[in-house]
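It would be a great kindness if you could assist me with a short task in structural biology. Thank you for your consideration; the sequence and its tokens are set out here.
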Amino acid sequence: MTPSPRTDTRRPTAPASPSGAAHAELTGDLSVVVGSLHRAYDARVGATVVQAEVQQVADRFTGATIRAFVPLFVRRYAGAVLRTLPATPQPATGTAPGAPGRG
């Protein structure tokens, strides 16, 4: 006799993204962490990169039954990756005399 499959009792995940993958909701305590990471890294790597990394890390914990430490993990893991990324060059607003590449 084979055992019957267990019923999945985890909390439902966030609605699926347009690509079909479910994303963790960035609300509650997690929203405070998201804001903190954006303030710390947006100017260095850009808001899109920060948001993508935060979402990727948060998605790893979508099915977690104990959610209390998820904000801590997101801050730690996303911050560790964002610290290692090279700074994105800022667009030039003007050309200084003698700037490289100028005649």
